[in-house]
Design goal:
The chain is α+β, with helices and mostly antiparallel strands. Helix content is 39%, strand content 27%. Strand 4 and strand 5 (89-90) form a beta hairpin.
């Protein structure tokens, strides 16, 4: 009898476990798939009216294994829904809300006759959307409007933050009223049709269109010649990226490329339409952030926009794979040194969350570590995988896995069966790897060093030894999981520095101990310089900057900090040299452009060259890259009694306003 009770209890536990697993699977699985969005928007006719009337038509399919008799739509809490129909028949709906951190989504729940698995239906929702305040996600004014996906301006069944894939579908957008409309896809008579998988968005405004290299660039009307030159350069860059990826991955998806200069929302891109910071048009050259955003958006045409991605870890394909390929393009165009700096920025961004992130198959868009994990760690994983199987073979297998226009991370992983252990460790486990190297141990005609790998996957990396006379020796080494190893350098010269994983291939929890003797406690070399600089410990800042620039001579952010350090030490000629070198970088950040111009303005001012100082100060202000640089440039300009450039009629207006 006792054994029977034990068996019955075991059966009960097993049944309960299976039941709970099934419930959990059903809970996180999608029921409805959007096959198309058709959005008709009526803009307000009065400047005081902040309400936009929208008719949203959604073609939906039941992709679950069971009949569905309920439909839940999510939309902005600022939407007032008047009617809803399914297949032409009016339906009742109840309202609720989903909590998203500190925000909410409005939830519309509809009951209906059961829809069989695989069956489709058409839902139409009429509503008004109130735009209470303008932001980078949603704005409404007399000169234009902007509605990006994360303003939740359209109804959709799955949340924008759904862990197994938000809704992406072909779209049709028509906006009545307002200035020139821009969305993604082909345009005809003011209506935009996108056949690929995107989230609906649109932007309207008054632009001048410049077409160069097969790319349309929309810039503010009456822009000067320099702005038009920057626009043409951005177009040429986008076209070059498209050509590069086509040579690597096959024919480019057939959708128009557009770059739109905006004051808010820069960095957003979807379906070949890219929002670019308007300030780029006033800078001397294309900056690193803009270049990465454009190349990343072009790469997504192959692996995100033209493929319906879903499932656990889909963001690693949607975000990580294009970011890896975009960096490869930067290396092809600007050289390895420039690409290494960009990879370092990505690595540093990931290192901030590396000790608290979830596995890539579990991290969700609501997690604050999401983008750093799926984009930056994901890009590192794809880079290692490409190195293991070969770049051409990697591209071939990825393209084959996604060629049917549908894709999951699991399908992509299945294309690399011989790498299953590595991919399992990278995707389904948290980062536990830390690679360490011991101090050099000098022997008879050779130097040895101990190696350690704390992670649960084997690694093969390069070890670099630097001798006292400046010679650098590279030796490969394989370190087994959670194990130790040793490397030997056959050289009679004294080894003064060792570094493990010189290419920084593998995601790690700490990069500061990759060098022996240890040079810094920071994984972020720029932060090491900035901390000393902010403390006005300029000697330490100079030392940290020299260390960083020795390893990354193209690290423009550190170079400009080095110049500012030299300026603080009154070594003006040396500072001027560093500022010029920073501006001459192939792909500087916008911050570098601003601070380097400010540095040159200060050195010119100290040398009594007022005209040159004014020119550089104006360049720093026009760059509009960072508040501190802009403010300091304005202060310097006022200090040398320069005119602000503000028209006299505007000055007169504010003078009379102050007297009122």
């Amino acid at each position: 009898m006792g054994k029977l009770r034990i068996l019955n209890f075991s059966y009960f536990i097993l049944t309960l476990s299976i039941s709970l697993f099934a419930q959990d699977t059903a809970r996180i699985g999608a029921t409805w798939q959007v096959d198309k969005y058709d959005l008709a928007v009526q803009m307000p006719t009065s400047d005081t009216d902040r309400n936009v009337a929208i008719k949203a038509t959604l073609n939906l399919k039941n992709i679950s294994a069971a009949p569905a008799s309920t439909l839940t739509l999510r939309v902005s809490p600022n939407a007032t829904v008047s009617t809803a129909t399914i297949n032409g028949s009016a339906v009742d709906f109840s309202k609720g809300q989903d909590t998203l951190g500190t925000g909410t989504l409005q939830r519309l729940s509809i009951r209906m006759p059961a829809v069989a698995p695989g069956a489709a239906m058409t839902v139409v929702v009429d509503y008004k959307l109130a735009v209470k305040d303008n932001s980078g996600l949603a704005s409404l004014s007399a000169i234009g409007a902007q509605f990006l996906p994360l303003s939740y301006w359209y109804p959709t069944p799955n949340s924008w933050y759904f862990a197994r894939g938000a809704d992406y579908a072909p779209t049709r957008i028509q906006v009545n009223g307002g200035p020139t409309l821009i969305a993604s896809g082909s345009e005809s008579a003011g209506t935009f049709d996108q056949k690929y998988f995107v989230q609906p968005f649109f932007i309207s405004g008054n632009w001048e269109k410049i077409t160069a290299s097969g790319v349309d660039v929309f810039i503010p009307k009456e822009s000067d010649a320099d702005a038009k030159q920057r626009a043409s350069e951005a177009a040429a860059f986008a076209n070059e990226a498209r050509t590069y990826f086509a040579g690597m991955l096959g024919k480019a998806p057939d959708t128009p490329l557009r770059i739109v200069a905006v004051k808010r929302g820069a960095g957003f891109a979807s379906g070949g339409t890219i929002l670019m910071d308007e300030s780029v048009l006033r800078r001397g050259k294309l900056d690193a952030t803009t270049a990465v955003n454009i190349s990343d958006a072009i790469a997504k045409l192959w692996f995100a926009d033209s493929v319906r991605l879903s499932g656990d870890g889909y963001g690693v394909v949607r975000e990580g794979l294009p970011r890896y390929l975009a960096t490869q393009f930067l290396e092809n165009k600007y050289g390895k040194a420039t690409a290494d700096v960009e990879r370092m920025r990505q690595r540093v961004a990931y290192s901030i969350v590396s000790q608290r992130d979830a596995p890539l198959t579990q991290v969700a868009p609501l997690d604050d570590s999401y983008f750093s994990a799926v984009a930056y760690k994901g890009a590192m994983v794809w880079r290692v995988l490409a190195r293991r199987v070969g770049a051409d073979e990697f591209n071939k297998r990825i393209a084959a896995a996604l060629q049917d226009g549908m894709g999951t991370l699991a399908e992509v992983r299945a294309a690399f069966p011989e790498q299953s252990d590595f991919l399992d460790a990278m995707f389904t486990k948290v980062t536990d790897t830390n690679l360490l190297i011991g101090l050099p141990q000098q022997g008879s005609g050779e130097t040895k060093a101990a190696l350690r790998n704390t992670g649960t996957t084997d690694v093969t990396v390069n070890i670099a030894a630097t001798t006292a006379n400046g010679e650098k020796i590279i030796a490969p080494a394989t370190i087994r999981a959670t194990s130790f190893s040793e490397v030997t350098f056959k050289t009679p010269n004294k080894v003064v520095r060792l570094e493990i994983d010189t290419e920084k291939l593998y995601p790690q929890t700490d990069y500061s101990d990759d060098v022996a003797p240890r040079e810094t406690n920071e994984s972020d070399l720029q932060l090491a310089v900035k901390r000393a600089f902010d403390k006005q410990d300029f000697a330490a800042a100079e030392t940290a900057a020299r260390i960083a620039l020795r390893e990354y001579p193209s690290f423009d952010d550190v170079r400009v900090l080095y110049g500012r350090t030299l300026l603080a030490l009154n070594r003006n000629a040396e500072a001027e040299k560093e500022f010029k070198a920073a501006l001459d970088a192939k792909l500087p950040t916008a911050r570098t452009i601003a601070w380097a111009n400010l540095g040159l303005a200060e050195t010119a001012s100290r040398g009594g060259q007022s005209a040159a100082a004014l020119k550089f100060a104006e360049n720093a202000i026009r760059a509009d890259a960072e508040y501190g640089a802009t403010l300091a440039a304005r202060v310097l300009r006022n200090k040398i009694s320069a005119a602000s450039g503000v028209p006299e009629d505007i000055k007169a207006y504010f003078s009379s306003f102050d007297r009122a």
